[in-house]
Amino acid sequence: MKSIRLFDAAPSCRRALFLCQSTQESIMQVGSFCTRKVITVDDRSSIAQAAALMREHHVGALVVVQSLATTSQVTGIVTDRDLVTRVLADPKVSLLDPIAQWAQGPLAVLLESDALDDAVTAMKQRGVRRLLVKDAKDELVGILSLDDLLAAFAFQLAELSAAIESGLRREKSLAPVASATPRSEMRFPCFGTGTWFPAVDRDERS
Fold first, then answer.
1. Class assignment of domain 29-154?
2. How do residues 136-173 score in pLDDT, each as one tens digit?
């Protein structure tokens, strides 16, 4: 996310903007907004079993894994949209078919320390709505969806709005400073004469 230049902001809001931006780098990271609840499905499981897992755990995506001797390897991801548009819409597909053949790949993966800007770029370049998130040890720790991104940017806008409102309230609470310059009487030019006359007739005010 591009930084807001402080000199573009109103003076009363600059401090609030600075405080907001100072925490932006740590807050606006993939790991702060990704869904940590990752549900996996074995690649030998059937389409029906995968759909049942989605319903049981109330998730819209499953990470497909291949079981090895001592660990599991991620091979793809399947979403509820895949099941509707690619599987159920095809009359030739059996619900007993293995889910592996419908898993999407290659995988789009980000580090949890990556910025949300990187996630936006990855989704745009790959044409996907979900990204896998890994930690520094190369282990899967979450899934970042398009909905997660929208929630993240909505949060940032709300924080920025609150900071600006706080600055404005503080400015309004300060006692007004008396002007050192005496206020001059407003005068208007007479039409056609080029001279000036008071806006209010002194005789009428007395």
1. alpha beta
2. 999 999 999 999 999 988 888 888 888 888 888 888 88
Q: What token pair was written down for 112?
A: 């949890």
* Single-letter code of the amino acid located at 142: G
Nearest to 76 by CA among 128, 6, 147: 128
Question: Which helix (H) or strand (E) is 49 found in, with range?
Answer: helix 47-57
Cα–Cα distance, 50 to 68 (Å, whole number)? 20
Number of neighbours of residue 92 by Cβ within 10 angstroms: 5
C-alpha 124/C-alpha 172 separation (Å) is 44
Q: What is the pTM of this model?
A: 0.64
- Encoded tokens for 5: 């230049």
State percent of the chain over pLDDT 70. Answer: 71
Q: Round to whole Å and give the CA distance between 157 and 16.
A: 13
As beta bridge partners, residue 46 has 98
Mean pLDDT on 96-121: 91
Residues 129 and 150: their CA atoms lie apart, in Å, by: 11
- 41 CB contacts (<8 Å, ≥6 apart)? 49, 50, 53, 62, 63, 64, 65, 78, 99
User: How far is the C-alpha of 132 from the C-alpha of 103, rounded, in Å?
Assistant: 13
Q: What is the DSSP letter of 97?
A: S
Q: Where are the beta strands (DSSP E) in the chain?
A: 40-42, 61-67, 72-79, 109-111, 130-134, 140-145, 187-189, 196-198
